[in-house]
Amino acid sequence: MDIAAYMAEVGEQARAAATQVARSTTAVRNQALLATARALDAARDELAMANRKDLESGRDNGLDVAMLDRLELTSQRIDTMIEGLRQVASLPDPIGEITDMTYRPSGIQVGKMRVPLGVIGIIYESRPNVTVEAASLCLKSGNATILRGGSESIHSNQAIARCLAEGLAEAGLPETAVQVVKTTDRAAVGELITMPKYVDVIVPRGGKGLIERISRDARVPVIKHLDGVCHVYLDSHADPEKALKVAVNAKTQRYGTCNTMETLLVDCEIAEDILPLLASAFSEKGVELRGCEQTRAVIDAGEAVEADWEAEYLGPILAIRVVDGLDGAIEHINRYSSQHTDSIITENFTRARRFITEVDSSSVMVNTSTRFADGFEYGLGAEIGISTDKIHARGPVGLEGLTSQKYVVFGDGHIRT
């Protein structure tokens, strides 16, 4: 296959389809989503068969247990995909919304209208359910999308792609509005991220290596986050019960996610009292602790080195540092945080306000677990990823994050004098 020619064709078809999707009605896009849900339900056997091929190939190629788990399409996960499509269909449509309409002294009216981004390229690994999540959000927000999943899930993704095509066709939308790249050749990624003529934005979902490569080589704007080095700071004014509960949840509710706490900061004023309680709780969960010198003077923990403050463990390991009050916590976070999600536990309103003002992350929290940094939990319905960028979209990226705004101006024969 001539990869460059194939990807150019995919891009050209996506650009043409984007125009038709953008001018479609909410009802038509919802019809496509609901029809896709029915198609998935009817294709359970086909999906299972395709997924078995991927799982067998994955085992033969030495994929680890965690990767195989993410790859598997169980009946429950198919149910979740179907329910996700229905939920996205039920969400308010942001497209066409006009806001901030004001009269100017000249007599004209000026406002902003929400519009699709156009063509969104999404590059992801392993989980075939991402194919449905990404396609549904892009479609609902009036965009066309090009999806490039990992080679390990090629059969599953193509089976899902057939259901998406069926849903689009039933609604009268072009099947090319959602295209799943058919080749596993890595050169396709290189083409996709360097086609500004056809692609308006790239969203990478995967490991740090993948995202670094795309960020470095792309000629198309990228919505991304590289790491999830998230912190919880236990202030001297924290309620001990809340502090213990939130810290344990932020680390152990699920280890392998980007919003899991990786570093715990403890105010020196409460360290001797609360660290033994924390150590006992984390020991029960099987979490390995690595601490600074002050931490190790109070509890049994391994030595934390500089690299630990920058580490995204994605596993049962936690770095703990005793800091000199709120100033020390903010200084540490702004130096080592990946600007994803950071939380303070405190009963002091003034300190909470300082924390949320001075910590420069995409989500900043008070008295709650970092695990809430999620599109569904934020009421976005779903998310296409989490952005730590500062331009366009920041934090969980839902429907609104897949749109832009343009100025609209109304007059009645007005001329500028």
Q: Can you give a write-up of this model?
A:
By secondary structure, this protein is of the alpha/beta class. It is about 45% helix and about 20% strand. The protein contains 15 helices and 16 strands. The strands form four sheets. A seven-stranded parallel β-sheet has the order 10-9-11-8-7-12-13, sandwiched between helices. Helix 10 (about 240-250) links the parallel strand 7 and strand 8 (about 260-265). Helix 2 (about 25-40) packs across helix 7. It is globular and about 65 Å long. The mean pLDDT is about 95.
Helix content: 40-55%
Assembly state of the chains shown: single chain
Global outline: globular
Main beta sheet? 7 strands, parallel
| Strand coverage percent | 15-25%
Order of strands in the sheet with most strands: 10-9-11-8-7-12-13
Total number of strands: 16
Separation of the first and last Cα atoms: 60 Å
Average per-residue pLDDT, rounded, comes to: 95
Poorly predicted regions are: none
Structural class: alpha/beta
Radius of gyration: 24 Å
How many H/I helices?
15
